[in-house]
Write the structure tokens for this entry.
Amino acid sequence: MLHEELRLRLNPMHDPKPVSPSAPLSLLRDPPRFLFFTGKGGVGKTSLACACALALADAGRRVLLVSTDPASNLDEMLGVALSDRPRAVPGAPGLDALNIDPEAAAEAYRQRVIAQMPDDSSEADRGTVREQLSGACTTEIAAFDEFIGLLAGDAQGYNHVVFDTAPTGHTLRLLSLPKAWTGFLEGNDRGASCLGPHSGLKMQEQRFQAGMQALADGARTAIVLVTRADAAALREAARTHDELRALGLANQRLVVNAVFRASAADDAVAAALQALGDEALAALPDSLRRLPQDRVPLQPFDMIGLPALRALSDPSAASSPAAAPPASLPADAQPLRVLADELAQQDHGLVMVMGKGGVGKTTIAAALALALAARGKTVHLSTTDPAAHLAATLDGSVPGLQVDRIDPVAETQRYVDKIMASRGRDLDEAGRALLLEDLRSPCTEEVAVFHAFSRIVGEARSAFVVLDTAPTGHTLLLMDATGAYHRQMKREFEGSSAARIVTPLMRLQDAQYTRIVLVTLPEVTPVSEAAALQDDLRRARIEPCAWVVNRSLAASGTHDPVLAARMAGEAHQLARVAGGLAKRTYVVPWVPRPPVGVAALSKLVDAGTVPVGAGG
């Protein structure tokens, strides 16, 4: 188990030299032991977490860098293959890194809970408990247990532990677990059906409380809200700030990443990009304005490798961008409307828009839904992302388009009401009270959200359903639940003469029923993460039909040195996607204003850029 290995590490904590009081990032001038980076997908949490961990190690500190994101890309940034055990980062003495492995954590958690069972427990009893601990909820709790253990004392030998977390919605769900479990355990002397014996829960409850106390202690922990100079990202940061405070986590600070300053007054694209950032920062919510704050410039290069990461925390270490050749899209590029036309050849179907946080999934999903409605289709646009705001993106209504979201709170209540009306119908008052008590388990939310997802997937039999999914890691957990349900149904109906069972997984595997659209940005990390997601989907026999490369600066005409250098990187990533990763590749241009509202989204569909050819 992770915490046992950390306790046995032979590298003792030594006296480090102080970090320079003039460090470019103020959060590094007197850092606490724990740094916890969180924020909306795509704002640069991983880059900044890596950069800060590297700066602390360069100052002589012993540092452990930990990713809690199921879709982590620490490996690529640091240039080392990581696992769920600490591994030294070459070229960075004193820095170790690891990815918390949800599956390995779940198995270790199962073993700990089963070990607490009475010695006279039968193999059947132990098998029952193992089955109860086989769901995605247990995986989520177990991964959180590994994270919380590092806060509760498992990271001996390190001066600092730096956490790179999953995108906001998933992280807030994780941080709310201790409060949810405490409420569930109060007065419950029978244990939770989703976690097994009560003794196991009590053990975890004490561990959670110790870890959360460390997380809430400003002397030990700084919670770093990472955002960008973008109105939507700043609104999400403000919401996250409020929700963290409600959880008792007030020890926060703000980092605004990728702040762009134009270097040529006659470059219209550069001027528009800077104006957007200035406008967003001028309207910074008061709750964020009061926080200690750092601003980090937009870099001309991708955050891959130690030199780039060192330059991020200390811009003076960066070299000037080399002159980049003019960039343009291939001549055969077509607009996104071509994809909409292809989808509209059917009268119904499921369109799932997937990808890394911050790549524009919600925008692309809304644009495609509008395009299908404009072609006379009946469309249901929904989202599985707890942090998504479809209604705000659409900002209007059109005939034939229904817009909503899978609300975990509402879906949980709907599920509880359904179970109480069915299984509780013939129970006496005491029996109903016990059933309701079991349904108070936080794992009920996972089951309820899966049922809602399954219901929406089924709607595509008679209409179009466009589903904006949560960021990659959270979506993979939902896919795990879908697979587990499929296996359960196959077991239950094996050998039955009943009608053929069609599970949600089977619908996702049906290329005529479901079209998977992967959204990415023309940058190394988003493309690599989309490729990894595609591999995961293919292992489940789910085949993506197209990639959308969003916010391309190519052919924009800018000659700003920073933007021109970034466009040179774009060309490599476009070639990488179109050269074999994608069957069909569509390119959506960067626009000077975020595409919010029916008119702007419709214009985005017709924008005059496109696929870089077809990959097959």
